[in-house]
Each structure stands twice: as C-alpha cells, then as structure tokens.
Amino acid sequence: MTGLDDVLHVPVRPVWSCSGCGPQVDWPCEYARAELTANLDPISRSMYAAERMVEAIADLPDEATPGDLFTRFLAWTRRAAR
Questions:
Q1: What angle in degrees, to the nearest 10, is found between the helix axes of 42-59 and 30-39?
Q2: Which pTM was predicted?
Q3: Mean local confidence (pLDDT), 53-73
C-alpha cells in the first residue's frame, strides 16, 4: 500500500468513519482491514471486529441494518482468513 499507509486508520465514533481516509469512508477501510489481517490471527481478528460491530450497532441504531453491519464489520474477516 502507498499513500495512506503511514496514517492511522481507526474508527471515528459515533459515525464510524475512518480517521485516516476521511469522513466519507466507512471504517474498517481497506487499510484498516489490511492492518488487522497482518497483526491479528483469524480468531482474534473476528473477535475484535465483532466487538466493534456491537459498538457500532449501539452508535448507529437508525443508520444501518444488523445485516449491513455484519457485512461491513465481520464478513471480510472470514475472506481474509483464507
């Protein structure tokens, strides 16, 4: 990765955008996903993402369905483990 890889890509709450990519990009962005994949084993990565999803459900009760949040926060962790 180039460009934004030296920037911290953490969630901005309560809107759950990416601090590194800007308010128009949902967290976890591609950079956050790559960092989490590189630094956490598959089970830890899934647990971390699930914890963030639970927090997002509380912060975004009217913004997205639970299914949308599952896709955003957890579905990618399974693909990354392959």
A1: 140
A2: 0.85
A3: 93
